[in-house]
Amino acid sequence: TQGALWGGRFSDGPSPELARLSKSTHFDWQLAKYDIAGSRAHAGALAAAGYLDEAELIGMLDALTELERRVVAAEFVAADSDEDVHGALERGLIEIAGPELGGKLRAGRSRNDQIATFVRMYLRDHSATIAEQLETLVDVLAQQAEHNIQVIMPGRTHLQHAQPVLLSHHLLAHAWPLVRNLDRLRDFDRRLDESPYGAGALAGSTLGLDAVRVARELGFTSSSPNSIDATASRDLVAEFAFIAAQIGIDLSRLSEEIILWNTKEFGFVTLHDAYSTGSSIMPQKKNPDIAELARGKAGRLIGNLSGLLATLKALPLAYNRDLQEDKEPIFDSVETLELVVPAFTGMVATLTFHGERMRELAPQGFSLATDVAEWLVKRQVPFRVAHEVSGSMVQAAEARGVDLDGLSDDEISAVSEHLSPEVREVLSVDGSVATRDGRGGTAPVRVTEQIAELRERLASL
Ligand code: ARG
User: Fold this and answer.
1) Inside any domain, residue 451
2) Which of 25, 231, 321, 375 has its CA 20 to 30 A from that of 315?
3) What is the pLDDT of residues 360-379, one digit of tens each?
4) Which residues of the chain have pLDDT under 50?
5) Where is the Fumarate lyase N-terminal domain (predicted)?
């Protein structure tokens, strides 16, 4: 009966519908290499504790090497009778090493501590891959910022023209959240650095196995201090799902802007042909599909996080089979990001920005009104009054259907006793950005420093 792993107390095999529901080999097979690595370390611990002699240990390790070869070559695959990857691999081991030796490996471990360990190993590997991909994206944003340092664009709040800013400053505002995500991944890896292997089903084992030794062999600094927590918790899996969702959200926000910038109305960017798509009916179309897919997949990443949190809520200690439901969402989040980030990076790297168009729009919508108010403040006018005066100047310009610099000298003077035509000195977008020169400001000198600071942070991660 099935039950390669647990048949003993059952007189009947699992019903076909139970077997179908219970089966996880179609998704947990990708943990096979971690399972085999765990088995190697576990064999060492069994030998050290006297449960395998020298020859048995060598035989076991050789058999595991052969098993791994077969798995990689797809010579050994999941059978219909296998419930999960752990049971399947024990079946494979016994095929190679025989039931006598192969049957010894399971002592002192449980699928509960195994799976908790393998999920950590999987997340560790893939979060490193995702971090590398994100670093490339941050670097590409920094390069675009450097390349376009002279471009001034309309900075917006509420999607309305607010104040002119450097395009570079805006692009870097998308890079910093990604740097924080990189920092989160690194921080997450520190918490991940404890191996649950040795926790057994929940309470440890009576065999005196050295869990720290196993942990070290699997690349962890130490083993979990509490065997119940080790097998029952998935907060770290949820933490990864959050980071993945946050990365998705951050890419989605830039995607949304690229989609807008790419419209006829904005005309801020041109997408490279290799990073855009066409229409099956409209010959002229060139669509920003990468940005749209990135935006769409953010929803999926959020869904993976919410689903997982809902699964974890109210689970009593220790292991419950519900925990098997952590795998598919987390695999999906990993696969989604590993697919999206490189395409997104290529799209950003090959974007052409239209500086002239951005500059043309930058002073429109009275975006220099704050500069007028601060010009008055520098002349000792209280800001409350300065705000009012600048607002009246906007009103006058709006009534005439011109921008602030379209008002005549007389019209400017007529707005308020505090105003004079000298205010024209701040009615330029270049002056506006150049004078916002505090730390974190949009002045070219500060933004150039910011690019260097970003690169330093990236290098120090
Ligand atoms: N496949 C399970 C999981 O992903 C591990 C197996 C534990 N099964 C059990 N009956 N205790 O969590």
Assistant:
1) no
2) 25
3) 999 999 999 999 999 999 99
4) 1-2
5) 9-303
Closest protein CA for atom 12 of ligand 1: 324
Supply angle C-alpha 217, 218, 222, rounded to 5.
Answer: 80
In a mutational test of the pocket of ligand 1, which residue from 86, 111, 317, 320 has the highest number of ligand atoms less than 8 Å from its CB? 111
Q: Is 132 found in the same domain as 233?
A: yes
Nearest atom in ligand 1 to 323's CA: 12
Residue bearing tokens 């002045």: 443
> Which ligand 1 atom is nearest residue 114's CA?
5
What is the DSSP secondary structure assignment for residue 317, as one 8-state letter?
S
Same domain, 352 and 423: no
140 with 176, same domain: the answer is yes
**Which ligand 1 atom is nearest residue 327's CA?**
4
Region for 168 from its dihedrals, namely left if φ exceeds 0, alpha if ψ lies in -120 to 50, beta otherwise:
alpha
Q: What is the Cα–Cα distance from 253 to 294, expressed in whole angstroms?
A: 9
Residue 136 is which amino acid? T
ipTM for this model = 0.96
Cα 292 to ligand 1 centre (Å): 37
Range of the domain at 50: 16-107
